[in-house]
Write a structure and sequence with these properties.
This protein has no helices and eleven strands. By secondary structure, the chain is mainly β.
């Protein structure tokens, strides 16, 4: 059974940093595309960052470029999202996702497995 479990969300002040993690089981990270998505109430889920397990290539949505970094540890089957210089508009539920479509795109339909999400709140 494939499972993705996120953790590390919480409350952080504007300008602060947070790292969220996603541990996978039932499949190998090294043969998948992985991504982080986020969603706020009343809005569509949006792709934040993706990583290509084959070549390590990464991509980010414009609003987080230079502030967020996606990475993965294949030995631990763990995906990370390091978030720096956080803004109130980054407040959302963050989801990790795994898929088999290369190259990875921030498109929901490309991903087969999803975690339950971890909430990030940026507020003073």
């Amino acid at each position: 059974e494939v499972q993705l479990v996120e953790s590390g969300g919480g409350l952080v002040q504007p300008g602060g940093s947070l790292r969220v993690s996603c541990v996978g089981s039932g499949f190998s990270f090294s043969s998948n595309c992985m991504g982080w998505f986020r969603q706020t109430p009343g809005k569509e889920r949006e792709g934040v960052a993706t990583i290509n397990s084959n070549n390590g290539g990464t991509a980010y949505t414009n609003s987080v470029k230079g502030r967020f970094t996606i990475s993965q540890d294949n030995a631990k089957n763990t995906l990370y999202l390091q978030m720096n210089s956080l803004k109130p508009e980054d407040t959302a539920m963050y989801y990790c996702a795994a898929g088999f479509t290369f190259p990875p795109r921030p498109v929901i339909a490309d991903y087969n497995y999803w975690g339950q999400g971890t909430r990030v709140t940026v507020s003073s």
